[in-house]
Amino acid sequence: MTSSPPRPQPLAGIRVLDLSRVLAGPWASQILGDLGADVVKVERPGNGDDTRAWGPPYLKDADGQPTRESAYFLCTNRNKRSITVDMASPEGQQQLQQLAAKADIVLENFKTGGLQQYGLDYASLNAINPRLIYCSITGFGQSGPYASRPGYDFLIQAMGGLMSITGVPDDEAGAGPQKVGVALTDILTGLYATIGILAALQERNRSGLGQHIDTALLDVQVATLANQASNYLVGGMVPRRMGNAHPSIVPYQTFPTADSDMILAVGNDGQFARFCTVAGRPEWAQDERFATNPQRVRHRAELIPLLRQTTVMRSTAEWVSALEQADVPCGPVNRLDQVFADPQVQARGIQVDLPHPLGTVATVASPVRLSATPVQYRMAPPLLGQHTEEVLRDWLQTDHPEKAIA
């Protein structure tokens, strides 16, 4: 019995011309690269993507010396080839148009209308390649009164409402709006851009034509407010900052322990009853104030201090061990060194070390686990312009990059 040959990756044969930089666009193109697409990252001669300079820390070479490759750039540019092009020159514009004619996808995050002067906007490239899927990522979208404004993750977290529900409550010390500890709006926008691109690829299989995808950070931020937005739209209530507490579930927050903090994430009344048994306070589950989740939400101010007085009596490890046996969701609040040392994280192979021209680079694995066509880690994040000549040979069958690429 002969085994079947391995199936190609889902996006094998798809060509992506990536004109984006920083995070949202590169996050999308890295996902496409992880799924097998040939992603060509276009960078400015000399400096490249802005994030190449966003350090320290920087990658260390084989001798342990820091290089010019920033950790920020490395986090979002795996499985790509880098070319340098002077977009401001007529020769560079012609070269990019030629590459776009061979591409399936163009990804860009310039200001609205910013690429028109270079002949690299959707209308111009669609005329060259009607099958082209062109994804634009901007702060505020291609329409509306804010369309011409630049948009940054921090700004959008504030304008889109996320910071109004993140941080210490107004009646406690340290109150005030807080941004999330990672550029989450950029990441989510990259994910939505990827979803739109995959949908457009599927539609092109039917129609034979590409289309323009208009993705805005503000749209994504408001959309991903999820239950908080729904609470406002349905109930007319403006959500407030609650620290680590949940507006609709109690207890569902951090609690102090004898040596640190833990998360208690009680999602139903049965879990709460089992917690009370482990805590040695089974009567709480019978108390009419706490027996059901709506009542616990209503009497939050009475219940939470009681829980805190109890959780400080044991260590985090003791609580986690006891509550896991009782099937009550809980866990520690880990630092990143603890995250990467966690046996579950290690068992899942979350850290992937890739050979790099300057040594070895550690990256975080893709969370997409496909049984038949898994993600392949083909290339470490590239050096600036590392693949210029190679890409021209592959895409344009030319050996003369000096004519148009600096």
List keywords for this structure.
CoA-transferase activity; Crotonobetainyl-CoA:carnitine CoA-transferase CaiB; CoA-Trfase_fam_III; Rossmann fold; CoA-transferase_III_domain; formyl-coa transferase, domain 3; 406 residues; six-stranded parallel sheet; 2 domains; CoA-Trfase_III_dom3_sf; 15 helices; alpha/beta
CATH superfamily of the largest domain: Crotonobetainyl-coa:carnitine coa-transferase, domain 1
Q: What is the CA-based Rg, rounded? A: 25 Å
Give the low-confidence spans.
Answer: none
Strand content: 15-25%
Q: Per CATH, what is the topology of the largest domain?
A: Rossmann fold
Largest sheet: 6 strands, parallel
Provide an overview of this structure:
The strands form four sheets. Strands 5-2-1-6-7-8 form a six-stranded parallel sheet, with helices on both faces. The protein has a three-stranded antiparallel sheet with strand order 9-10-11, with helices on one face. The protein has a two-stranded antiparallel ribbon with strand order 3-4. It starts with 14 loop residues before the first strand and ends in a 10-residue tail after the last helix. Strand 3 and strand 4 form a beta hairpin. With 406 residues, it is of the alpha/beta class. Helix 6 packs across helix 7. The protein folds into two domains: 267 residues, Crotonobetainyl-coa:carnitine coa-transferase, domain 1 (Rossmann fold, 3-Layer(aba) Sandwich); 77 residues, formyl-coa transferase, domain 3 (2-Layer Sandwich), CATH 3.30.1540.10. The radius of gyration is 25 Å and the shape is globular. Keywords: Transferase.
